[in-house]
Amino acid sequence: MSIDNHKETLGFQTEVNQLLDLMIHSLYSNKEIFLRELISNASDAADKLRFEALSDDALYEGDTELKIWINFDKDEKTITIRDNGIGMSREEVIEHIGTIAKSGTQEFFKSLTGDKVKDTQLIGQFGVGFYSSFIIADKVTLSTRRVGLDKTHGVKWESAGKGEYNIETIEKESHGTEVTLHLRAEEDEFLSDYRLQEIIRKYSDHITLPIIMPKVTTNEENDETTIDEEIVNTATALWARSKSDITAEEYTEFYKHIAHDFEAPLTTLHNKVEGTNEYTNLLFIPARAPFDLWDRNNHRGVKLYVRRIFIMDDNEKLLPPYLRFVKGVIDSNDLPLNISREILQHNKQIESIRSGTVKKLLSALETMAKNESEKYATFWKEFGKVFKEGIVDDSNNKERIAKLLRFSTTYDDNSTPVITLEDYVGRMKEGQDKIYYITAESFSAAKNSPHLEILRKKDIEVILFFDQIDEWVSTHLTEFEGKKFQSVTKGDLGLGNLEDDAEKKETEEAENSLKPIIERIQAALEAKVKEVRVTHRLTASPACLIADEHGMDASLERLLKSAGQLVPGGKPILEINPNHPIINALKNETEETRFTDWSHILFDQALLSEGGQLEDPATFVKRLNEMFITMGNLSSSPIITLT
Ligand code: ADP
Ligand code: MG
User: Fold this and answer.
1) Mutation to probe ligand 1, out of 13, 35, 38, 41 (largest number of atoms < 8 A from CB)
2) pTM
């Protein structure tokens, strides 16, 4: 590490400036949260020191009672928050206090609307942290020394929150961090015992460290004052207390602290698991998705403690990725305190904590779905797209997860999914033995796909998949309660039992009479299609494309291609509708070039109607225009159905 004593002035990262600006304006009505944020940081710093000290006692420097001290000075107009936690090195100060390292920072700034009310909620969700000091302070001084570094390696950081900060190396006797807020003139209200204690009890009561304030008593007789220390908070781990002693407000404040959220959670679970592997979990499902929900590598929702000592907040081993939106604490009674990350990888107890916790969460969701459908709808809206990954991630609980899924279908043409697989199976038609679904790039592409025509006509329900993740999910969702899933764009629909004899005969006749043109179309489209055949699916459209039974859905193929993957190029099957006027007109088309053009137009429009992209759109348009010109004087001909 380089020793750099000189004082330097550095610029904040652009995002920090934006954040500061926005925060000072939008959080002004909620300015007391600065104290919650600074106490939360001090508490995190203590957790980190405890964890590092597990393998090296000396890091405590003889000071094992970790605490947070809050002081104020009426004359100087300052508030000071001090801890004897881990502290920071110069590099760490620059890295943590000058930049925002959170994932999703870019997305966050893009999502800001300029509307103060909306942005205030967003910023709360993003987590304002240390910078909230500048809501009430026009200058902030932080001095710190990391444990393990000698006292000449202290750091002083100072900023007025306007674009830049000063940093210098100082001598600092005690390890840990001290943050001094120089209040703006109008913020006098915070220079009061009463006010500060009120804020601490409101937001930080659950912090497990003692939060200490000086208590000044004046002796009436001789007018002498003595200063004692007073612990302001309860200072016990909330999750270790008994459920019946905890108020809803306490749960909510605890949630806001660990989740950096402004809003109350959607639901709270608090369980003590007893037996050979004892642990407590206090878990929350937020009411709103965070910005980095998409990041499957972000596992910072659940903190692991061992007998109240923080071990880590990388919960990859504690919960599968599809539950990454869950926040909270798991505290084990039985794991060894000096557990290393390597041991965590293959630890039987951790595995059993993990599977027990997943089961608890699934049953909480089941209960919510059953008894609080509105809440469940919020859950699904916020987290459904991530929860669905469970079908792929968690094969042990696949059936339970499948029951918790919500779908849009052709019976409920609404892009908000509310239908369950049990609903679907419960109303399957007589003779129907498959669960039909379609995947497409958007809700309207799914809903309007020509592939649905025959199923709509027969009043058979089809599940509409239109989220990107659905492509992936549908390849793993192959069966539910003994019913197989069937893509309507793939292979044989298996409508056999649903067709009556007249229909079967009709198709057979059509197949015979269309044989010659099927062969001609096949010849024209040799390079593009595997086969041409009479359809069982269409009633209104002239043609559609089908993947063969073992092939890949066209939309999955597109998804993989767009993700830059090499896709084995299976050619699709073109199905034509014997009852469509264009197909009938084709029977009489003797001019070979025109027949070829028609064949290509049929293929291309089938591709377009399922949301595909043409390889050569210009040629398609040229062919189409030529058709219009040739047919121009035949305005009564069936060609006009092409629109
Ligand atoms: P967050 O706490 O969400 O990471 P903050 O803005 O509150 O965001 O803090 C940024 C970082 O600064 C912390 O992650 C931590 O590394 C460092 N930090 C802040 N306060 C302290 C402190 N009192 N002791 C040690 N490190 C601190
Ligand atoms: Mg913080």
Assistant:
1) 41
2) 0.76
